[in-house]
Protein 1
Amino acid sequence: MTPAPEIVPDTEHRGLLGVLPAAWRPYALLARFDRPIGWWLLFWPGAWAVAFSGQALHRWDLILWLLVGSIAMRGAGCVYNDIVDRDLDRQVARTRSRPVARGAVSLKAAWAWLLALCLVGLVVLLQLHRTAQIVALASLVLVAAYPFMKRITWWPQAWLGLVFSWAGLVGWAEAGAENFGWLPGLFLYAGSIFWVIGYDTIYAIQDIEDDALVGVRSSARALGARIRGGVAFCYFTALFLWSGALLIFAPVIGPDPLLFALLLPAALHFLWQVVTLDPADGANALARFRSNRFAGLTVFLAFLTLGMLARI
């Protein structure tokens, strides 16, 4: 059984950690392998882009490579974040048990683990064409700056939106830009940014009190009593921008009003999140946050359907 000090409050797979050798557990926790929600959220925009381009069936291998890259690079990002935030993490109840913060993994070992995960990302990068490679590498600047955003802006979630949506640009550069230009991909990317701001604001609800004590900023603190309305605005804007992407394809498949029904499942799911969100309940917020892996699936199915229609 996994010792209690190794378990952070939002761990999903305690059984997996229990199977791993004790020496490996801190590294799995450091890369958040126990919490797959993070790589699902990083993966979905890339999968959307491939589906939107109509290449999902033909380029199923690309979708799998994007999944591998999402797991590795999300893990690398978490390791880097924990290295930078180790002092802050010790002051926050939810994060003080993270491996670097509690000393279970040394700084030297954390940097080595980061490098190993980046090498996996490099393997994925080599599967892409030159333009997509350049787009992917450009994200490293945003990733490197993210841990510092909570110290200088009330909206680090917006910066996370830029980072966690980037796979959409990579996927579009690889599968869609040559045939359809960049505009549809940019609409998809912009919508994803607001989706990320919405769900990460929900996630930040768990840390509002601790963040206030240590001086960490977040959109949840900035919105205060207006959190539910702020999240609703972000989700609505995401749907609006994705609808704009659908409109770009209207000349290709016809201006059918039913086109917009493709996003109805996602819209209903977002509505459920907003209506049932309890900003005073961290467990409630965590459950709504995690449900976005399903929200990502509904958007994927919408773009998959659209992409297939565009190819007919």
Protein 2
Amino acid sequence: MINLIQGDCITEMQKMESSIIDLTVTSPPYDNLRTYAGTLDWNFDIFKQVANELYRITKDGGVVVWVVGDATIKGSETGTSFRQALYFKEIGFNLHDTMIWNKTNPMPKVKTKRYFDKFEYMFIFSKGQPRIFNPIMQKCKFGGKEYNSTCKDITTGKERTKKNFILNNERYKDNIWDFAVAQNKTSHPAIFPEQLASDHIISWSNEGDVVFDPFMGSGTTGKMAKLNNRKFIGIEKVPEYFEIAQERMK
């Protein structure tokens, strides 16, 4: 099931039944950094409506992946991402994890009194405990080797005993993910790296689950949902971007 909807995300979400979404992977507008073809109408009150609808339509155990950054105005970051995270918690979501997208090819900046900005937050919100977690594994550099150390006695918490460990060959991937900013050949001003979307889809949903993106843009989340055998619902306001998403989904 692939359902692409052209329209305002709040209006369209209000038409949706409650508790039907397993996973949302999306990136909202960042303050006023982009105008999105002159259609941007975005402030904290509008954000709250989006967040409230996301809570309503998310299943118990469902997850929202919220990829967001902050503008810097007059030398100070806005902190909007943190305000949004706290509001998600206020309405009932758990802040399950605060992850980082580390951009391996950031846009260089000059003549500023700040270090290069090369990351965005990936907040993982869950409605209760996440129902699904399919961890992406990575190889351990010293897997299979013996490790000698001491650790506290769990009964007293004071004495230390010597322990010998054989290190695992694999471990969970870190919560800092390295991805290059996607090469953009579309008219959309900001597109996801496909692997970033895919890894979240694999991590927080199973095949046949419903993945949602209320700010669909060029349709990266939808494309990767389809390639990973998930159902998808996407909403996009801008006709030009909606057409791009339709073509990519084909």
